[in-house]
Amino acid sequence: MPFYNGTLFQINEKEMLRYAGMNPSSKDFPPEEVSSAVREALALAEPRGIWQVLPYDNENGIICGDFPMKLEGNAIKHHLANSSSVAVLAVTVGDEIEKQSDAHFKAGEYVKGLLLDAAATTSVEHLADQVDELIQKEASKNGEKTVWRFSPGYGDWPIYQQKQFCQLIQAEKIGVSVTDHSMLFPRKSVSAIIGLSGTIQRDKPPKCSTCSFLNCQFRH
Predict the structure, then answer these.
(1) 131 neighbors 89 (Cβ within 8 angstroms)
(2) Quick one: 162 exposed, middle or buried, by C-beta within 10 A (0-12, 13-18, 19+)?
(3) How far apart are CA 194 and CA 146, in angstroms?
(4) Rounded (5°) CA angle 175-181-186
(5) Distance between CA atoms of 29 and 75, rounded to whole angstroms?
């Protein structure tokens, strides 16, 4: 099972402001505050990842391996309908960023807390992109193509399958666990599945159009 010790050299400030709930062109946050949050996030991040490729029974929606898992929800099974194997992954930037963000809020430094939290979210998504790109490269060596990554909670894939999914990934090996409410801990973590096939081609993810979480503040 490959581990991924990622690197974070920069953070996309436009994405960071979007996660902070602001228009990227907004002048509400002074540039020095944004830059300070980026530096703090880069210093505190502990990027770690884990992934593996497993056989997939697309007729029955079952991920095979040491911890077989039957997927629930039509969206995820439709998404993987042409896949003969899947890559499962988990990444995290640790909990030190979240601790420091909470400390800012408790000290009444709300702008610093908000921006650091947004920088952490941007960081973990970037880390997931890095592992995704690695999986694409490995798949191409075998003449395979991939579909975009899909996470528990997307569409009608029930979030309660998060715990079993992380057991399958063995996410605990990078310090990621699942709470009783099916949320990842550290909070700045991502789990996902990527379908592999010899025939399908990756398209741009429809993201918001497939998600049932209509009240998400990041919905486009």
Answers:
(1) yes
(2) buried
(3) 7
(4) 25
(5) 38
Confidence of residue 7 (pLDDT cuts 50, 70, 90): confident
| DSSP bridge partners of 89 | 51, 192
> Residue 38 is encoded by which pair of tokens?
């980026």
d(CA 207, CA 204): 9
> How many helical (H) and strand (E) elements, i.e. helices and strands, does the chain have?
6, 9
Predicted TM-score (pTM) of the model is 0.88
Question: Residue 3 and residue 63: Cα distance in Å, rounded?
Answer: 20
* Per-residue pLDDT tens digits for 13-33: 999 999 988 876 667 778 899
Sign of CA dihedral 126, 127, 128, 130: positive
HSE (side-chain half, CA atoms, 13 Å) at 60: 9
Percent of the chain with pLDDT over 90: 77
3-state secondary structure of 5: coil
Query: In a 3-state reduction of DSSP, which class is residue 199?
Result: coil
The sign of the torsion formed by the CA atoms of 171, 117, 98, 45 equals: positive
How far apart (Å, rounded) are the C-alpha atoms in residues 37 and 11?
Answer: 10
The two tokens of residue 163 are 């715990």
Stretch 143-156: mean pLDDT = 93
